[in-house]
Amino acid sequence: MRYPAWKYLLILVVLVISTLYALPSLYPDEPAVQISGAKAGTQIDQSVVKKAEQILKTANIAAMTILLQIMLPYCVSVHLKHS
């Protein structure tokens, strides 16, 4: 070995960390909207999901998924199709 083993190990660790850091950039962007309450603790229910569906339908916007997230904070996630 030309250099001490710790230098090779350090290079390997830096490469692994930088690869993990760069992985999210490899995926394409996905247009999405998140709907949440204006105040903390506002309850979001199925009626908000139905209203979001209506608004998207009247605007001629196709949605892939509309999810009501029940974990705190309550919100609705709308993932849109690429146009």
Structure, explained:
With 83 residues, this protein is an alpha+beta fold. The chain is 37% helix and 22% strand. The protein has helices at 5-22, 46-58; strands at 32-36, 63-69, 75-80. Strand 2 (63-69) and strand 3 form a beta hairpin. The model has no long low-confidence stretch (mean pLDDT 84).
- Overall mean pLDDT score? 84
**Class based on secondary structure composition and strand pairing:** alpha+beta
Binned, the helix content reads 25-40%
Arrangement of strands in the largest sheet? 1-3-2
Give the number of DSSP strands: 3
Work out the count of structural domains.
Answer: 1
The geometry reads as: elongated
Ends distance? 55 Å
Radius of gyration: 22 Å
Low-confidence stretches: none
Features:
83 residues, alpha+beta, 3 strands
How are the SSEs placed, and which strands pair?
Elements: H1 5-22, E1 32-36, H2 46-58, E2 63-69, E3 75-80
Antiparallel strand pairs: 1-3, 2-3
